Amino acid sequence: MIQPAHAADYRKNPFTLVYDDAITANVPGKVNIHPVTYKLNDLNIVANVYTPANFDLKKKNYPAVVIAHPNGDVKEQAAGLYAQRLAEQGFVAITADAAYQGGSGGLPRSVVKPANRIEDILGMADFISRYEGVDAERLGLLGICGGGGYSLAAAKTDKRFKSVATLSMFNTGRVRRNGYVDSQLDTVQQRLKQASDARAQQAIDGTVLYSGNADLTDAQIAALPYDLYREGYEYYWRTHAHPGSTFKYTTSSLLDLMRWDAMDQIELIEQPLLMIAGSKADSLYMSEDALAKATGAKNKELFLIDGATHIETYWVPKYVEAAVAKLAPFYGKYL
């Protein structure tokens, strides 16, 4: 099981942040948080912008980092922690709830399609590039877990991003298609039939079917076969729970997810690429695969956080510090 956490209770934080040492008030001269709302394809998107200490609008040359959250995450969880830590290093950072998820708009709820998640990233870039004080020519991208796979896809074609980094990258298409660690190859067609039937049912009478929506007992969590899933349930349902966060997604979303792969045309990434993962993460194979296939990246590196599992990179202080200590000079050099 994941080691005991001491995260903030979202009910006790005015911004509903659930990570250690989260901002509780905007104080002059300190890192501040700015909740914002903007339109993306006629949907209301909710986001948080973090500004560095002594943020001075007159400078108008701050580098900014767009942060794409993990699958099931919201901006108040892991993505928010990294946004705050990068702001402490002098970067403006933005993280938003994905469309159809968290506090952002979109019906039915919990639609999870790659095209939407990639568009979320581009929408954050649109917004933060126009944010007063930000230099739009100094824009970086950070994707965490599933947000990492979608960030690779976004960076293939959107060259506003001058550098791209991932943390515990998760190739959602590959996993939804093949199973985690390619463990469900023999049921691909069966699961595609279920997704097809779910879409047909919705077309017939509007019924929306969901997958991944399970509130497990402690015993059931302990019995899960992979660290990512065991620790993921601990993180999202126990230690860092947030009401906007959920594992569920519409079953019909699998029609899009299972035909998508973050590795498709990854050679189009020419920007500097930094991939960070825990040395003990059972998801490490996905970062290794991506780095090998990103043949167009001018500078690329896989940085391993010694001893960390996938979920531990989201919140364990020493592992977060190790990641930020690598990210800050990376963005400093390439932005």
Would you spell out the secondary-structure blueprint of this structure?
Elements: E1 32-40, E2 43-51, E3 62-68, H1 78-88, E4 92-96, H2 114-129, E5 134-144, H3 146-157, E6 161-167, H4 172-178, H5 188-205, E7 210-211, H6 218-222, H7 227-239, E8 249-250, H8 254-257, E9 273-278, H9 284-293, E10 300-305, H10 317-334
Parallel strand pairs: 3-4, 3-5, 5-6, 6-9, 9-10
Antiparallel strand pairs: 1-2, 2-4, 7-8
Helix pairs in contact: 2-3
- Helix percentage: 25-40%
Order of helices and strands: EEEHEHEHEHHEHHEHEHEH
Shape: globular
Q: Distance between the terminal alpha carbons, to the nearest Å? A: 38 Å
Low-confidence stretches: 1-5
Mean pLDDT: 95
Question: Sheet bearing the most strands, described?
Answer: 8 strands, mixed
CATH-defined fold name: Rossmann fold
